[in-house]
Amino acid sequence: MQHLALTQEFERSLQAVDAALSVPYWDFTYDQYVANASATPMAALWAMDVWADDWFGTARGANHTVTVGRFAWSTIATNLSAATRSPWGYLRAPWNMNKSPYVTRMHDFCGAEFDWSDGDLVSGQLSWPSCKVTY
């Protein structure tokens, strides 16, 4: 629900500037379909066109910085007096320990590669890694 509330707040802010603006709809059920239809689900997801250089760009290097595409080398704003910020002062979630000043994309979860088969079963569907996997 947190992501939904954040998206709604962002959309309301956009519409305060221009009532015709809206946040694009992302049909995540298609992503799940693509993953479940593949013998290598995670590879199939990362091969989708949204991660191409002309969309969101790819993350490269040891710091997983987005180095190509429209978000290449985009910096994260800082505000040390903001009530909600990362420990590094970046306007990220308070629990985000990423100290990179750039937009990054990680391909793992807590240092462990995410194997599609390691997810929890929720209503018959796979989800994010379980507490056991994270531990």
Describe, in plain words, how this protein is organized in 3D.
The structure is a single chain. The chain is α+β, with helices and mostly antiparallel strands. Among the domains are: 55-104, no CATH class; 108-135, no CATH class. It has helices at residues 2-17, 28-36, 41-46, 131-134, and strands at 59-60, 65-66, 119-122, 125-129. The strands form two sheets. It has a two-stranded antiparallel sheet. A two-stranded antiparallel sheet has the order 3-4. Strand 3 (119-122) and strand 4 (125-129) form a beta hairpin. The longest helix has 16 residues, at 2-17. It is globular and about 45 Å long. Residues 118-125 have low confidence and may be disordered.
Topology overview:
Layout: H1 2-17, H2 28-36, H3 41-46, E1 59-60, E2 65-66, E3 119-122, E4 125-129, H4 131-134
Antiparallel strand pairs: 1-2, 3-4
